[in-house]
Design a protein that fits this description.
Blueprint lengths: L10 H4 L9 H8 L2 H14 L3 H9 L4 H11 L10 H24 L9 H10 L7 E2 L6 E7 L4 H17 L3 E7 L7 H16 L4 H17 L21 H16 L7 E4 L2 E4 L4 H10 L4
Parallel strand pairs: 2-3
Antiparallel strand pairs: 1-3, 2-4, 4-5
Helix pairs in contact: 5-6, 8-10, 9-10, 9-11
């Protein structure tokens, strides 16, 4: 979903920097528009490259100086007590991605959708492929939650117990869908925990929430190929890390490709009744999100 400019392009236009960066939510809502995606695809076709390639190439044009223009302002809104190294890296990476999208939209002539009604927001939900995705609840539930995560992600692991408690507390009021977004999509080893999750869902869906907790706890061992001693998986002969079917890896890669199409760039990312929420959530944060998205 990116526009890459050749060396012969207009430099002042190529390095466009808006006065204020759009939020992650605004970018994702814009990308959920069919008309916006059509424009991006048309532009990419003219450039003879894929949108994914366009995005990665555009990222290389964003300098640390560009990021600092916005970082100085945005870090003021973050309490100093939680400005750890991981958070700083995530925030600066978010700025980089938002600069990329700002330039892409600018060059493609797309107007950012700062506000969007619920019907338009739900267009994205209708476009997602949930055929083989882990999911609980009914589509007529009060809240629909889609989560993109990776079992190797520390922030995802921190959020999961709170998400699990939420699903238990509200039960039939929530439809929850898990989508894969690997931190490193280039090696089968890094995809292994998510691929194993697909197998566990297919073979033992009733106990999948428990399996998810075990996947988070054992993800690094799974990736390294260590011998696992997880009794809950002993009876699932098809779901052994060293002998997983290639179809599960394909499902993970398909999820990642789909997520990038809609602008997902980090995990955990949640889509709740049309609202995008990026980052780890605790119980209090979840309750606020549910309160804000209760009206559909």
């Amino acid at each position: 979903m990116i526009f890459f400019v050749s060396c012969n392009g207009n430099t002042s236009e190529d390095l466009y920097l808006p006065e204020n960066l759009p939020s992650d939510e605004t970018i994702k809502e814009t990308l959920s528009s069919d008309s916006s995606l059509a424009k991006l695809n048309a532009k990419a076709k003219l450039l003879e490259k894929s949108l994914a390639t366009w995005k990665e190439e555009e990222k290389t044009l964003v300098s640390e100086k560009d990021i600092n223009l916005y970082w100085q302002k945005e870090k003021k809104s973050t309490p100093k007590s939680i400005l750890d190294t991981d958070l700083i890296d995530r925030q600066r990476d978010s700025i980089r991605i938002r600069i990329v999208w700002s330039r892409i939209f600018h060059k493609t002539g797309i107007t950012l959708k700062q506000k969007q009604n619920q019907v338009a927001n739900f267009n994205l939900f209708k476009q997602l492929n949930f055929e083989s995705s882990p999911q609980f609840g009914s589509s007529d539930a009060k809240w629909i939650i889609v989560e993109w995560s990776d079992y190797l992600c520390n922030f995802c692991r921190e959020s999961f117990p709170h998400t699990k408690n939420l699903l238990s507390k509200y039960k039939t009021q929530i439809m929850y869908i898990h989508k894969d977004f690997p931190l490193d999509g280039d090696s089968d080893e890094s995809l292994l925990p998510l691929a194993l999750g697909r197998c566990l869902w297919e073979n033992d869906p009733k106990n999948f929430l428990g399996h998810m907790q075990l996947l988070y706890s054992n993800s690094k061992k799974i990736m390294r190929g260590d011998n696992l001693q997880v009794k809950e998986w002993d009876f699932l002969q098809d779901c052994q890390p060293k002998s997983l079917s290639l179809k599960y890896f394909s499902q993970v890669k398909s999820d990642m490709k789909e997520a990038m199409k809609f602008g997902v760039g980090s995990v955990p990312t949640f889509w709740v009744n049309g609202r995008w929420v990026v980052g780890a959530l605790d119980s209090q944060s979840w309750e606020r999100v549910l309160e804000d998205t209760a009206s559909r």
